[in-house]
C-alpha cells in the first residue's frame, strides 16, 4: 500500500506539472512566446532551485525520453509535409542541413573558445549540439503565427528543421567518439578522422536506407489494411507505434533513427495519404504530450544558480549564434540559389533552437567529457534566448520584410 501511495503522488505531481504548463502556455501565447518555453520554465521551477525543490539528475532518462519524443515529432513532421513542398525545398534545405550545420558548428566553436576559454574540441562539441534548428519549435511557431509565405520559403525552413536534427546528432556522437579515440588527445588528425568519418557515413547511409525502405514498405502495408473512417484513433496509434518501431530498429542497426523516421514520414504521406490524413489529429495529441514531457524533464535537469555563473559567456555565444554564425551559414548556402536578401534574413532568424540542443548537450555529460556540464548549461541558455527573442519576433519580421502573402 505504501508503494501504491508513492506512485499515486508521483502521478499526481507529474500530471499537475503538465496541467500548469499547458495553462501557462495558453496565456503566454498571446505575447508570441513559445509553448515549449513555458514547459521548460515550469520544469525549472519544479527543480532543485524552485519552490518544489525536486532533485533530478538522471541524464540518461531525460535523453531517452527526449529521443523518443524527437523521433515522434520528426515522424509527425514528415507526415505533415506535402510532396510538392519536398520538391520545392529539398535542395536549399539539404544544403542548410549539411553544410549549414557544419559551418554553424565551426563558427560557434570559435565563439565558445573565445568566450568560455574551452579547448577547440569542446567548443566544436558545443557547436554541434546547438547547430541544428528544432523541428518542434519551428512547427509550433509557424502554426501559431499562421504565416503565409512563399511555398519555397516555407518548404525550405520546415524541411531544414526536420533534416538537420539527424545531422547534428551524428556530428555530436561522432565528436564524442573522436575525443575518446587515442589519437584525438594527442592531436593526431588522421587517427581522429578515421573514427569520425566512418561513423558519419554509417549513420547517414543506414538512416537513408532504412527510411526509404521502411517508408515504402509501411505505406504499401497501410494501404492494404481495412481501416475505415471511424478508426481515426487507431490509425494515429498505429502511426505512432510504427514510427517508433522504425526509429528503434534503425538505431539498433547503427543508423540514424531520426533521419529514418523523417524520411519514412515523407514517403508514407506521399504513398498512403488517406490513412495519413486520418491519423494526423490524434497524432498531434501524442506529439504535444511528448514535447511537454521532454521539456519538463529537461527543465528539471537544469540548475539555475549554476547557469547564472555562465550568464555572460552564454549570452555571448547565443548572440554570436543568432547574429553571426547562423546568418553566415544561411548566406553561404542560399545566396547561390538566388534567394533574395529578405528571404535569407528571414531564414537566418527562423533558426529556432528547442529541445534538440539540450538533449545533444546531455550526451557529453553522460560520456564523462571534462567540463561537459558547462556545455550543457550554455546550450540551455542558447535555447531559452532563442525561444524568448526569435520566436515572438518571427511574424513581425516577416511582415517588415514584406514576405507575408495575403
**Number of extended strands:** 0
CATH architecture type:
Up-down Bundle
Biggest pleated-sheet summary: none
What multimeric state do the chains show? single chain
Sheet/helix structural class: mainly alpha
Helical coverage, percent range: over 70%
Strand-residue proportion: under 5%
What count of helical segments does DSSP give?
Answer: 17
CATH topology: Na+/H+ antiporter like fold
The number of domains is 1
- At the first level of CATH, the class is Mainly Alpha
Q: Write down the overall mean pLDDT.
A: 85
CA radius of gyration: 21 Å
Distance between the termini: 62 Å
Shape: globular
Low-confidence stretches: none
Order of helices and strands: HHHHHHHHHHHHHHHHH
Protein name: Potassium/proton antiporter
Transmembrane segments: 6-27, 34-53, 59-79, 91-114, 201-222, 234-250, 284-304, 310-334, 346-366, 378-398
Domain Cation/H+ exchanger transmembrane: 19-399
Membrane topology: Multi-pass membrane protein
Write the layout of secondary structure elements.
Blueprint lengths: L1 H27 L6 H12 L12 H21 L3 H33 L4 H10 L5 H11 L5 H30 L1 H4 L3 H36 L7 H21 L4 H15 L1 H29 L2 H6 L1 H24 L6 H9 L5 H13 L4 H29 L6
Short key terms for the protein model shown above:
single chain; 406 residues; mainly alpha; Na+/H+ antiporter like fold; 81% helix; globular; Cation/H_exchanger_TM; transport; cell membrane; Potassium/proton antiporter; antiport
What does this structure look like?
The chain is an all-alpha fold and 406 residues long. It is built from 17 helices and no strands. The mean pLDDT is 85. It has a single domain, classed as Na+/H+ antiporter like fold, CATH 1.20.1530. Helix content is 81%, strand content 0%.
Amino acid at each position: 500500500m505504501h508503494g501504491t501511495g508513492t506512485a499515486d503522488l508521483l502521478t499526481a505531481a507529474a500530471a499537475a506539472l503538465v496541467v500548469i504548463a499547458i495553462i501557462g502556455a495558453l496565456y503566454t501565447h498571446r505575447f508570441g512566446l513559445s509553448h515549449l518555453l513555458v514547459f521548460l520554465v515550469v520544469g525549472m521551477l519544479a527543480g532543485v532551485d524552485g519552490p518544489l525543490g525536486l532533485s533530478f539528475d538522471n541524464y540518461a532518462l531525460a535523453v531517452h525520453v527526449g529521443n523518443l519524443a524527437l523521433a515522434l515529432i520528426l515522424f509527425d513532421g514528415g507526415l505533415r509535409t506535402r510532396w510538392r513542398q519536398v520538391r520545392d525545398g529539398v535542395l536549399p534545405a539539404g544544403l542548410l542541413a549539411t553544410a549549414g550545420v557544419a559551418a554553424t558548428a565551426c563558427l560557434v566553436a570559435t565563439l565558445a573558445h573565445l568566450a568560455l576559454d574551452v579547448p577547440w574540441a569542446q567548443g566544436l562539441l558545443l557547436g554541434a549540439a546547438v547547430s541544428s534548428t528544432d523541428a518542434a519549435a519551428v512547427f509550433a511557431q509557424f502554426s501559431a503565427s499562421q504565416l503565409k509565405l512563399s511555398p519555397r520559403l516555407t518548404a525550405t525552413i520546415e524541411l531544414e528543421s526536420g533534416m538537420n536534427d539527424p545531422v547534428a546528432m551524428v556530428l555530436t556522437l561522432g565528436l564524442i567518439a573522436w575525443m575518446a579515440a587515442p589519437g584525438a588527445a594527442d592531436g593526431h588528425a588522421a587517427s581522429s578522422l578515421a573514427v569520425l568519418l566512418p561513423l558519419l557515413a554509417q549513420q547517414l547511409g543506414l538512416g537513408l536506407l532504412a527510411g526509404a525502405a521502411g517508408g515504402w514498405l509501411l505505406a504499401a502495408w497501410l494501404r492494404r489494411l481495412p481501416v475505415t473512417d471511424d478508426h481515426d484513433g487507431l490509425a494515429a496509434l498505429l502511426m505512432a507505434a510504427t514510427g517508433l518501431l522504425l526509429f528503434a530498429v534503425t538505431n539498433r542497426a547503427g543508423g540514424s533513427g531520426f533521419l529514418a523516421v523523417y524520411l519514412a514520414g515523407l514517403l508514407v504521406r506521399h504513398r498512403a495519404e488517406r490513412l495519413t490524413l486520418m491519423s494526423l489529429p490524434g497524432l498531434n495529441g501524442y506529439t504535444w504530450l511528448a514535447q511537454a514531457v521532454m521539456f519538463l524533464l529537461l527543465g528539471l535537469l537544469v540548475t539555475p544558480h549554476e547557469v547564472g555563473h555562465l550568464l555572460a559567456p552564454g549570452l555571448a555565444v547565443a548572440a554570436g549564434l543568432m547574429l553571426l554564425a547562423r546568418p553566415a551559414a544561411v548566406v553561404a548556402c542560399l545566396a547561390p540559389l538566388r534567394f533574395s536578401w529578405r528571404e535569407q534574413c528571414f531564414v537566418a532568424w527562423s533558426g529556432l533552437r528547442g529541445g534538440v540542443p539540450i538533449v545533444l548537450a546531455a550526451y557529453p555529460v553522460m560520456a564523462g567529457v571534462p567540463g561537459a556540464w558547462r556545455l550543457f548549461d550554455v546550450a540551455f541558455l542558447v535555447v531559452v534566448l532563442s525561444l524568448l527573442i526569435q520566436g515572438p519576433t518571427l511574424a513581425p519580421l516577416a511582415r517588415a520584410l514584406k514576405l507575408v502573402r495575403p
